[in-house]
Fold this sequence. Notes:
By secondary structure, the chain is an alpha+beta fold. Helix content is 30%, strand content 17%.
Amino acid sequence: MSVPPHFLCIDLGRRKSIGTLVAAMPPKMMMALDECDEDASCSMTWSIDPSGTMRHRGTGVKISADGGGITTGDGTEYRLSPEDIDLSESVSLGAGACGVVMKGKIKKTGVYVAVKTVRVDDKGKREQLLSEIRGLVTAEGCPNLVQWYAGFASKRTSAVHVALEFMDRGSLADLMKRVHASGGTGVPGRELACITKQIMIGLDFLHDRRLLHRDIKPENILHNADGWVKLTDFGIAKDLDNTLAVAGTFVGTVTYMSPERCLGEDYSLASDVWSVGMVIYQLACGRYPFSNIESFPALFEQLCEKPEPRLDAGLFAPELCDFVALCLTREQRHRMDTPNLTKHAFCIACPSTQAELVTYLATLPA
């Protein structure tokens, strides 16, 4: 068994969601921004004027400093300023590769938001930010994708701040912790079907618009006390051109990647479907599908050479077993796509109602 040299783990993390009241941020949370004129690649794509406003030359995206908001290439404006948000310094939602996440509240409406502070100190992070903005714009209107309000650049912190929808129950990784704390093993079948249906609606919305997520994992799927389940973190999402529906870069979280991605092969929308199958398997069983991931070679062997993970038909409903099997099919051409999975019996005939999901969530530890 040989492992390709590109088999690397690039985990961009999750809890890095949304905008922030700049003036209230502790110094340790402030991110540095390299001067653009010291980075030739930056001068080719992004420009930053003395006010701190950032402009992307290729797409026309403008991120104005301290209150001007974000303007997309078609002229649509998303306005927000530091003064618009009350930031609760005592409530940190986490941190990731791009920066910190704080809980905030829009003053005029009283709506809670997740305040994501994005470091833009190198070309890669700036391009990731651009990808995330494009993904958030694409996600508008879908109830199973995290929505955004607006964002702005801050000259003071040398960072960009984005205000996103706040999901008060956290990620599905948090859900599994609560399930285990309650003495359970996995999420019950009908509630799991309700969660799965919502995941598939969100993913099908992205795929219908030729957007590949590329980092589906429990940490990037959020839920709230009202029973909504939503995909988030479009920072490494990729548009697939209609004439070239494959991608070749190696980004994302390796433990949920599809075999073709880890093999360095071209991949397409089907790679997201494999990741969904891994997540649903884990929610059902209460454990990650592979028993040994202590080393890359061990993970590679299970992912690319051993039989695909399958749920025990004696313990789980046939519809659930079939759904997972259709996702966790190594050959891309045989892996079912999102339009058909959204109409699968497990998503149509088996789900609890959203109200029943709310009742179930309320039984778990806070």
